[in-house]
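Hello support,

Our group uses your service weekly, and this is the first time we've seen a run hang past the timeout. The protein is Sulfotransferase family protein. I'm not sure whether the cause is the sequence or the server load. Input pasted verbatim:
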Amino acid sequence: MARTNEIDERPIMLWCHPRSVSTAFERAFMQRSDEFECLHEPFGDAYYFGPNRASTRYTNANLPKDVKLTSSTFESVFDEILKSRSGKRVFAKDMAYYIFPHLKERNLPLDKMVNTFLIRDPHKAVPSFYKLSINESTGWGYFDPNEMGYKQLKDLFDFVVEKLKQPPILIDSEDLVKNPKEVMKKYCQLVNVNFDERMISWNSTKISKFDKWNGWHE
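Update from on-call engineer: The timeout came from a worker crash unrelated to the input. Re-ran successfully.
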């Protein structure tokens, strides 16, 4: 799929599962803050903390100290992603397991986005997620295999390709780590973005958007 000369203003979604190197992928787009508005796991608010929250992980009694229940719904998050941002294009990364179960019961406008996917070998991702799920730094306390989200990621991928007829754009995190420049250049071509060298190198710094998930990004 070659890049066209037309300006593509559709939000770019990177759908993934936990511990898939997705935050580093997102960080690459954060380097281009003059061109992109990056949204960090926005559907997590609706899934864990909103009025229609699907997860039982957090109850009113065990909410993290710095997190409160919100008014976010899956619909309101989509509205936030799709709103105009003064010439900036939106890049958002999120977990497929947050939204896939709701596709049948809600009219969610995935067709208005460029949906892309990132996956990592479960032999690497699952132990990493397990370790942090029982780590005091995250405050989770237990491992829930349903939150790995591999099946939902596969189901969402099939939905995007078969139902929405969008071309499949899938990245293996191992390829990304081994050949970041080549993979990012190809990805940019497929989502109609000019590649920028800033996407493959940056200085370590605190990112305030990551604060809502304590312990996961150190």
